[in-house]
Write a structure and sequence with these properties.
The protein has five helices and four strands. By secondary structure, the protein is an alpha+beta fold. The protein has one domain.
Length: 126
């Protein structure tokens, strides 16, 4: 089993890291993130239970702009999320996971291919 990086290794004020994809329910996402901890293995870092990400799972796919709406301070980074998604060819999704004050660096954590969440990118927020 590979050793996981610490959540704090990626902490950075004023930045937000966003994951996106299509989970069927909050229960499914919760199982992936928290119960099975597979997210940690897929993305190479430990989650901090005192500093959890904000998440949303919708019943049907929404545009990225609709999906990001409602997260804390999303007004300041929604346009960046939409832009990052467009660059990756993602127009709609049901699920978004947002880590505030966090810069995920895939090159340091070696994420697994084919994970059920896709890392969209890290961007500034205010």
């Amino acid at each position: 089993m590979m050793s996981l990086m610490n959540h704090n290794d990626f902490r950075k004020g004023g930045m937000v890291s966003v994951w996106i994809d299509d989970f069927g329910s909050d229960v499914e996402l919760d199982d992936y993130m928290n119960l099975s901890r597979i997210f940690e293995q897929d993305f190479g870092f430990e989650l901090n239970e005192r500093d959890t990400p904000e998440t949303v799972v919708k019943d049907a796919p929404l545009t990225i702009a609709q999906l990001v709406n409602g997260f804390s301070w999303s007004d300041s980074y929604a346009a960046s999320v939409v832009e990052f998604a467009e660059k990756q060819g993602i127009a709609k999704a049901t699920t978004m996971v947002v880590f505030l004050n966090f810069v995920y660096e895939p090159e340091r954590a070696t994420p697994k291919e084919g994970a059920p969440l896709r890392f969209l990118g890290a961007m500034r927020f205010s």
